[in-house]
Design a protein that fits this description.
Chain lengths: 579, 579
């Protein structure tokens, strides 16, 4: 039996696009003589439509798309498996998997386990399924029983076990599993163990592409009943993965042979005990020989590709081509420019260098050098004349005037004014250059450097910004990002001789505290036990929570961590901060 | 039996404040010789803590507060009923009601029905309860069986019916029910019907106060077993409502007398049939005599008070006193100034009039007059010199320069710069003056008039802004808001002779379309059937959805409608717009 995993990139509400994708990949699968072609979760609607799922016209649109697809299925041989939201007559919407063949909707499976944590709110939209679905494909020796799951379902042991009891030979899992750094390896390991337990192949089909702050990394894969990774699709790209599934009898008899071979070791024990001990052996051997043959992608490369895809799809799915950003000569805007030029093409990126008296000559040189290296457009717009005008006025308005944070912020805000002026005039999307560390502690100017339509590195910790910059130069084999940008002490250059470390602890320390608190959800007392100063931990957590009102107004960006500040961090503004 | 409904205003995470409130109101109830004092849902933690509920240190803090409260209960006579989140040993958190008396936690009830729609995400945080809880209070004739529910529970018939089967005489419902215009009357009607069905008193205790974008309106109440409104607490203020509950026997025998009296009408029918017909009579009579004696608050007054409380608590719970806003001479900033001065005191409000060449003399006069009428601080900061400087520079930067939306927006953004400069220098919170209609269709400048720490009228439709302005002058019995502000055609005054209706349909039409789409969730085809031009409906819905990226960056404001743009409107930015 031959299966095709169609890892495609749909768009929310774009039924024509999504249907075209399904047709295109089905036709490819047909040419490859696949028996089954499998698409991701909610492929017809796009993932996640959020409150569009509460709207009648949206659900009707999906239903019409499904009907067109059923009609199309007459033209091809493979059985189609697709995901979509379905409004039932009882008025409940289910996250549904449909099996379609030759003009007929053969059966439907409703998702059982609805994730309602992190970025997920599926209880808001869907009812819970209660029935399993199996399908027999092929004839004679090749007859294969297939079972179906949707995303979260596979993480709950009961359903996978039920399919094992039904003796399915292939478990199909359709997914829209958002990218997080390090998550893929965990997923692979878990699904592998599940396949071993259930003695079936698992075909795990994932979405690919960017949707608002989420990026789907693709990497659909098939594991064997022994837990071995058979094949994996491309990361961060559309792909069609063709895999041949060995017949159930062949697999089972080989496993039986193996069992008998191993059973000879245990002399003088009953059949029952042998079986038990051998099953244990098989599990262990699958863990040894299975997924560990997979070589994980490098930390920096994986994040970089996720960010590039997130930016590209944010633009292309909205019909935008051009980005503008302020290039300061610092590391954050440098990395943002690199990402934008990789995602959109250098010719579509405009960088403005906008100095005041506090910006060093080195900053100008570094910004210019980087722009040249990338081949992006570069212009200088002097901010100093505006800044002077504001300061003159303000000195008259405030009798006790002295230079303080207000005067720092105004510089960042004038820059935002200029960027948005260009945006209005030239159809650019403004990219904010804020990173996760500064967004966490509020070390960023609201309506200033925070401003933008999209914030590519908003979920990237400052220490990771450095790692990505260094990695990029290695990856390109040349000093695209001038070494001086990477090495100089970070500074907002909003007052004389300013550095970030005048105000903040070193980023190595700050990022560790933030990660333990935000990603690991550790209580402060536990963080202190890991060797950080209690006063420092308290200060960081207070800064973090006091900046909530700023984060609520931040542009969205690409989620790459377990807990990003977009959909998965929900903290009130008004509160007393608890330790 | 005497009960006390303690309608208090807690703050998220402020355990000391919340405990003090509970102690203070318990002591008052003690002095009033109440048998039972009832506090709202999650009173010890504040409502809603959101993701603080996932943090160990927070749940520990709640637990310690509960222990302190149990200790305190030794000092008073009434039985205490309080709400709090409870982490159980299984690692599940329940939305809990605790019954405390004389140093003992007598019993706990876990919320059964978890709302997960609109602004609610309770499945994210809580497990579902499975047991009922009853308590017998008093002795002899006054012995009263009490049942308990939490908020959403009362909307599901099964639990209320179960308590009826258990023959409780008082159903206690503790709530954190956010304000929406018109919701209170629906609630009253529903709870009244439930009491009639179950033949018990219902004591409905609601939270009061503002928390981020939510306002709780209080108006706790008690209805009798005949569905009559016995007493209702203050709206939008803390209150202690004391109600005497008639003994069960007295109530039941009176109902029986009434039944017998009415039964005499039905001659020659069996006892069983009489009972049936009489029960029907009682239901009907309760609907006639019950809640309809309540006079609803005026539409404008209710909204106005909700907005004032929302602003006041946003400031006071964060320790802020002073607000700043741009006063343009238009209706939106006028109403915002009125609300701010009512909420914070006129002396704490600073209004800046910031003209460019496009602002009329009338606008200045109107702004100044309003400021004088309110007694708020008023300053003029000329924007024209900044605007000129920007325009000169931009004319040089863009060879084909002509005045367009970029040049309109820059004026609004300079104003935001100035407001935020004052905010940084003087500790003011900037109030955004955007209303719901313009926020819906994107007729607002991001980082311009949209900018602010808080947006008091963001959930108020433009036609409602006018209604509130007119009502306020009536309410104060004088022309506080100059009539000219109310009567002149609305204009952003960002180009010569501009009015909103150059770009938008009349607000009377726009608001109706928006309300049908947003609040009523009607599909566009249905809106057209109500008599609106199909092209106009399409245009409005497209404008609405294209402005999503702006709304994602808007400051929060007070929710007053069924679907506000804060927590209860979740629409992707990247999408194809569906009709």
């Amino acid at each position: 039996m031959r299966i095709a995993l169609a890892q495609v990139n749909p768009k929310v509400g774009d039924f024509d696009r999504n249907l075209s994708l399904v047709r295109e990949y089905s036709e490819k699968a047909h040419l490859e003589e696949a028996d089954l072609v499998i698409f991701p979760e909610l492929v017809l609607s796009g993932y996640l439509p959020e409150d569009w799922l509460l709207r009648e016209e949206f659900l009707k649109g999906v239903d019409e798309t499904l009907k067109r697809l059923v009609e199309f299925s007459k033209e091809i041989d493979p059985v189609l498996v697709v995901g979509y939201p379905k409004l039932t007559e009882g008025g409940i919407v289910y996250n549904t998997l449909g099996v379609i063949h030759k003009g007929k909707l053969l059966g439907e499976y409703y998702k059982h386990y609805l994730p309602n944590y992190g970025v997920f709110d599926e209880y808001r939209y869907f009812g819970r399924g209660e029935h399993l679905l199996t399908l027999e494909v092929g004839r004679g020796e090749n007859r294969t029983k297939v079972g179906f799951l949707i995303c979260e379902d596979i993480w709950h042991p009961t359903l996978a076990r039920d399919y094992a009891l039904l003796e399915v030979h292939l478990l199909v899992s359709i997914n829209a599993s958002p990218y997080e750094v390090g998550k893929f390896e965990k997923k692979l390991k878990f699904v592998s163990a599940r396949s071993t337990d259930g003695l079936y192949y698992t075909a795990y089909v994932n979405l690919v592409g960017g949707q608002d702050s989420l990026v789907f990394d693709g990497r659909s894969f098939v594991v064997s009943p022994q837990g071995q990774l058979v094949k994996v699709a491309k990361a961060f790209e559309e792909d069609l993965l063709i895999v041949d599934i060995e017949p159930q009898n062949t697999v089972r008899s080989r496993l039986r042979d193996q069992r008998v071979k191993e059973a000879t070791i245990c002399e003088g024990v009953s059949e029952e005990v042998i079986n038990l001990s051998v099953e244990k052996e098989l599990n262990t051997s699958s863990e040894r020989n299975g997924i560990f043959t997979y070589t994980p992608m490098e930390f920096e490369e994986e994040i970089f590709k996720a960010l590039v895809l997130g930016i590209r799809d944010y633009f292309s799915k909205q019909g935008f081509k051009r980005a503008i950003l302020g290039l300061s000569g610092g590391i954050d805007s440098a990395l943002t420019a690199v990402l934008a030029s990789e995602a959109l093409g250098a010719e579509n990126v405009l960088a403005l260098y906008m100095p005041t008296v506090f910006n060093s000559t080195e900053s100008y040189e570094d910004a210019k050098r980087l722009a040249e290296n990338l081949g992006i457009n570069f212009r200088v717009v002097e901010v100093e004349p505006f800044f002077e005008r504001f300061e003159e006025t303000f000195k008259n308005l405030f009798p006790d005037w002295r230079f303080d944070v207000a005067d720092e912020n105004i510089q960042a805000r004038i820059r935002a004014n200029i960027l948005f002026y260009f945006s209005n005039k030239g159809g650019y999307i403004v990219l904010s250059t804020s990173n996760k560390s500064e967004s966490a502690v509020g070390y960023t100017t609201i309506y200033g450097d925070m401003a933008g339509g999209f914030a590519p590195i908003k979920d990237v910790y400052k220490t990771w910004v450095y790692r990505l910059a260094r990695w990029y130069n290695r990856y390109r084999g040349r000093e695209v990002i001038p070494q001086r940008i990477i090495e100089k002490p970070p500074s907002a250059e909003l007052r004389p001789n300013q550095t970030d470390q005048d105000t903040l602890p070193p980023y190595e320390v700050l990022d560790q505290i933030l990660q333990l608190y935000i990603e690991e959800n550790l209580p402060p007392s536990e963080i202190v036990k890991r060797g950080f100063e209690p006063q420092l931990v308290e200060r960081v957590i207070k800064l973090l929570h006091r900046a909530e009102y700023k984060r609520k107004q931040a542009p969205i960006g690409v989620k790459i961590t377990k807990v990003s500040f977009d959909r998965d961090w929900r903290i009130p503004i008004v509160k007393r901060i608890v330790f």
